[in-house]
Amino acid sequence: MNAIGWLNLRSLNQEGIVFAIAVVLFVAAAIGLPGFIDPNNLVAIVRSVSVLGILALGMAVVIIGRGIDLSAVAIMAMSVAWYLQLLNTGTSDGLAFAYVVAGVLAIGLLNGFLVAYADVPAIFVTLATGSFVFGYVRSQLITQDAVPVPQGHWVELLGGLRFLDIPIEVFVFAGLAFLFFLFLRYTKWGRYIYFAGDNPVAARNIGIPVRPMLVLRYVLSAFVALIAGLLTASSLHSINTRVVNSTLLYDIVLVAVIGGIGLSGGRGGVRNVLVGAALIGILLNAMTIIDIPLLYQNLIKAAILLGAIIVDGIINPRDEQTAQQGDI
Amino acid sequence: MSFRERLQSWRYNLVPDHLVGEILTKRWTDNAIPFLALVVTLASFGSIIPGFFKLNALQESTRQLGEFSMVVTGMTVVMLGGGIDLSVGSIFALSCFSAVYVFFILEQSIWLAMAASLATGLIFGAINGYLVGYLRLRAFLTTLVTFIFGRALFDILVTTYAADVQLSTATSDVLDFIGDSTFWGLSVSVWLAIILAIVTHIALTRSRPGWHVLAVGGSRRSAHNAGIRVRRTVFMTYVFSGFCSSIGGFLIACRLSGAGPGTGLNLEIMALTAAVVGGVSLGGGRGSVIKGLMGAIIVLTMTNGLIRLGYGTGTNQMVLGIMLAAAVTIDIRWLKNRHKVLNEVYVAPVYLKMGETQSAVPGSGTPYELDNRLSAADHIGLGELEGPEDVILDRDDHLYCGTRHGEIVRFFAPDYVKSEVFAHIGGFPLGLAFDKTGNLISCVGAMGLYSVSPQREVKRLTAETARSWTSIVDDARLRDPNDCDIAPDGRIYFTDSTKRYDAHDWALDSIENRATGRLLVYDPRDGSTKTLLDGYRYTNGVCMAHDGKSLFFAESWACRVHRYWLEGPKAGTAECVIRDMPGYPDNINRASDGNYWMAWLGMRTPSFDLSLRHPDMRKRMTRRLPQDEWLFPNINTGGVVKFTEKGGIVEALGDLSGDAHPMVTSMREHRGYLFVGGILNNRVGRYKISGADPNWTSPASYWGAKP
Predict the structure, then answer these.
(1) Partner residue opposite A135 with nearest CB, options B84, B272, B321
(2) Per the UniProt record, which residue ranges are transmembrane (chain A) (predicted)?
């Protein structure tokens, strides 16, 4: 009985369930919540999940390769904050951008190097670099928590761009999602990520450059974070570095995990990110319309994430014989 | 000696390279780095910040340290069990709030507040433990999520009740005492932290649940297979961590008389950094409470020091990030490479110029000249035996020898075809000797000196001697007890060949050539073991002289035989009786004609002798070449040599074919025959000695005719 129960559960597709839940939620919200089905609100939903979705794309690539990037939000906020600070203090745009790109590249490389070549667990590396990036930029490079976008700068103009009444970040999200889809599905290196995530030792034995690929993933994730940061700054006309201490990071993990990207690596794809983002977007929007305070929203999101991780643990169980030592 | 060689001998014989390797074998080197970091941190902040060590400032920071170190202790235990607990900050904050709520809003007694606080921690810990231990979720992510959950809950509660707490008029002397007073100069939180640390340390190192935690952390799979309840153990570590954090939370509630949005903020990354900086390994099994505490002091000193130096927002996170990344990287690289480094640096060869020797080549006309007589020896137990290092015969003519499998095998007289396992010891029995009452005394490689009674009861006589004051590796332990013999008064004289290598690594000792061999004596009357002589290059065979007033012992790598006086004017001193032999001597035994038999385990070669004068070359060799390409002493040819009490060589027997007895480690004369053993051989040889006394036996020679 029990065995059959497990079997059924395993044969269920998490992506499918989540999609179904998202649809049900959407229908329920459309019927129950006034103003939910309004086109403006729908655009707002898509817009609100765009940045989240972009970050989740970077996270997804890292997770598929059996890693995690806890420094994504710190990189997102701090790189843009530094960029804007440089602009505000009169550095030329090109130079400032070059600095920031170099900085983002350096952090991505550092993450990748420590994970790939020093064999430090990704979770600790990125926790430490996230803390370092925030601390270093906040204490050494910028002067206050929020940095505004200079008047008339392209980042500000970016925020105002509309196409068919849809804000530009939605298109960026869609474009990036399509690119990641092509990368993961149709390029050699994209397929390598799955091999390395599924079984790193075997991947290495058959000659895949597992370590350089690891570095590439963290660099990729760092640049995705930079793009997300620029979009955030463009829509808000400033960047608030306090976002690093918020639960945004866990929302990203939530989107990836709830969409069905297994934390043990090797599974999932762009579609899972889209499904996860849809569910979280509808959920957040609905909670905002019902007027649940932010603090309670955090509580609910944490509960959902916990549930998602428990389900993930049941679907992809680990046991004493196969669990790897030190795999925490 | 050329100038180059003199330099080499100074460089390699006077500089104690071997100490580096010996220090690295010590577990406490793991503690050395965090301890150094601690000293450096305290010293640098103490000198930069004026009044850092002033009592007032210390009082406040130690209170904080007390709370923090409790959280770190909990984190340490979880990490030792192979997990991680990121929710400590939330537990800390929620426990603090529980205490505040019960005391200030419900206006209950402080003890009830404490109970509420502890209950909060235990429940939260149990949830973590259930998820990670029983559901086996990933510790890091799971506790990260419970951390967000707890933090969200705390933020809601604190914003809801902050005003009520402010308005409350509840007071308590106990609360003030815990929060503000000191007891024998230390605050309550420090006392509690010390007590908790001591109790936890004892529990971890000296109790069954503590061992289970370390076992699970060390190897989860092995612990599971050994029958330890892994899930429950993991569960308990999280409950313990929750408990520790809740005490911390209760203490801060007493100290601040309230809870604020900042309570327990960033505590998880601080506690994690502290544990890792202190040297508690990720992935479990390695670390201690003391390490955690060292880390706690380092982290708290750093963060507090930076605040007091006036660095702005974010500096703390920056420093924590750097410390965490550095500590984790060092920890992982160190764990991974320590044994590699150890292997590389442990072998530290010394310089030795071997003396000119006479040839042993057949037909060279020297007394050492080998012939082919041993190749004609009969074989006993061919193919059944593996590694009869020593052979001995008892009064009833039965033959005994040790084997690689840790047994002493007995072959029955008169034809030595039938055999049985006489006794199972477990280690490799090397030297053998019969005492007066017929007990078989054996030096067991890497184990010690053992006695087997005629009724086959195995008893350990000794496994250690007094430790020398200057030793770094534990030289009290007998690493390579090699051969023994018994004086007329019953005292057992035996050799321990090397202090630096285990018995099976004897080849490494020959390459290093450091003089660490010893001669020891075990006194059965009071069970004591004493070191008589030290500093020989692989002491090997021991044989009591016929009159029982002195003994001979072999020094293998120097190709010498010494005589040690038990009585007479030279009692307690040794003199060299044979030097610069062409072969490496092994066991020595009595011969029927008043002389002595000595086994040669191998022959000197010009190439190896030359390499002994080039320690740098041997060092490079052990570091850069795989072991099967090293230059070793030649053990493809050995032999048996008879020498007189004065050290004169009577004759030498060899096996030039190399088929039957290439390497000889022992021989024993018995009723006109010579029984020959070799540690790498698969047989015992029996060779008829022409002209030997057909009635002479070794037991009778030692202990008189049959009673």
Answers:
(1) B321
(2) none
By the 8 A CB rule, do B99 and B280 touch? no
A247 chain-B contacts, CB cut-off 8 A: 148, 152
Structure tokens at B539: 């002491």
CB-CB under 8 Å, A139 with B314: yes
Average pLDDT for consecutive 10-residue bins of chain B (707 residues)? 87 87 80 81 80 67 83 92 89 90 82 89 92 84 86 86 75 70 75 90 90 88 88 92 92 81 81 86 82 88 79 77 83 78 84 91 90 91 90 93 93 92 92 93 92 94 89 88 94 94 87 93 94 93 93 95 94 93 95 94 94 92 88 91 93 90 93 93 92 91 83
Residues of B in contact with A299 (CB under 8 A): 149, 152-153, 156
Residue B80 CA: distances (Å) to CA of A78, B6, B128, B129:
35, 51, 16, 14
SS3 state at A120: coil
ipTM of the predicted structure?
Answer: 0.81
Domain boundaries, chain A: 14-315
B587-607 CB burial, b ≥16 within 10 A, e <16: bbbbbbeebbbbbbbbbbbee
Give the count of Cβ contacts less than 8 A between chain A and B.
Answer: 160
Q: Going from the N-terminus, what domains does chain B have, and what CATH number goes with each? A: 55-343 (1.10.3470), 373-464+478-702 (2.120.10.30)
Interface list for A 257-286 with B (CB within 8 A):
263
* A26: closest CA of chain B, how far (Å): 25
With an 8 Å Cβ cutoff, are B136 and A309 in contact?
Answer: no
- Cβ atoms of residues A275 and A259 within 8 Å: yes
Q: Does A131 touch chain B (CB under 8 A)?
A: yes
Q: For the domain bounded by A14-315, which CATH number is listed? A: 1.10.3470
